Amino acid sequence: LSITALKFPIVKELLLLNFDVILMDVDALLLTNLPIDFFLTVDVAFQRVFYFPEPIAKVWNFAACSGFVWFKSNSNTIELLNNSIVKQFKVYSDQIALNLALWESNIKWEYTQNKKDDYHTFIESERKDFFIQNHKNKIHGVSDKNGLKVCALPTDSFWRNDFVPIEISNVIVFHPNSPKIEEGKIEIYKNYKLL
Which of 129, 136, 130 is nearest to 111 (CA)? Predict the structure, then answer.
C-alpha cells in the first residue's frame, strides 16, 4: 500500500525536474525497446484495461491501467498528477485515482467525435466487441479543459487482457491482468515461455 501511495508523488517530483517518466509495475515485463514514436505527440499514454474501474470503462469502452503509464514533463501532466494524488487520498487505489483525474479532465476520445451522446453507457458485450476490434489501435483523446493529449495504447503490443489475441513476438509490455497472486502470474509468464 505504501509503494502504491508513493507512485504518483514520485512521478510528479521527477516531472518537476523536467524528466519524462515511464511508470511501470513490477509484474509488467518490458520485452523489447519502447517505440518512442508512440509517445512523442502525447502528454500521457497508458496501457488500457477492460473492466476497472467499471463506471469509466462503461462510458469509454476501456479504462486506464496505472501499471504502465508514460508521462511527459509539462504543466498539463503535472496538473493531472496533482489531481490523481488528491483523489488517491480519498479512494486509495492509484488506478481509480488516475481514471478519476482523467475523467475530470473531460477527455474527448477520437472515436466519440461523431456521437451525439459522449456519455452513453455501453453494455459489456458492446465494450468487449469494441475492445477486441480496436486492440491494434492507439486511441487518442484530448482534454477540453486544458488540451492534455492522451493515448490509450494498443492492447496487442501493450498486453493486459487474455481475451485479446496476441503474437508474443509483437508484444512490447506483457502485463497479465489476473490472477492477482504472484504464483498465478509466474504461471502465465511460463505459459508464454517468458520464464
Answer: 130
Cα distances (angstroms) measured from residue 169 to each of 49, 63, 156, 173, 192: 21, 25, 10, 11, 10
* pLDDT digits (tens), the chain, 195 positions: 566 668 999 999 999 999 999 999 988 999 999 988 889 899 999 999 888 998 998 888 899 999 999 999 999 999 999 999 999 988 889 999 999 999 999 999 987 544 445 555 666 777 778 877 888 889 999 999 999 999 999 989 999 877 777 889 999 999 988 777 788 888 989 998 998
Instruction: Provide the sign of the torsion angle of the four alpha carbons 51, 168, 94, 78, taken in this order.
Output: negative
Which grid coordinates are listed for 156?
A: 496487442
Asked if 189 and 29 touch (Cβ cutoff 8 Å), the reply is yes
Q: How far apart are the first and last CA of the chain?
A: 27
pTM of the model: 0.88
DSSP alpha helices (H): ranges in 92-152? 94-104, 124-133
Q: Which three cell numbers stand for residue 149?
A: 493529449
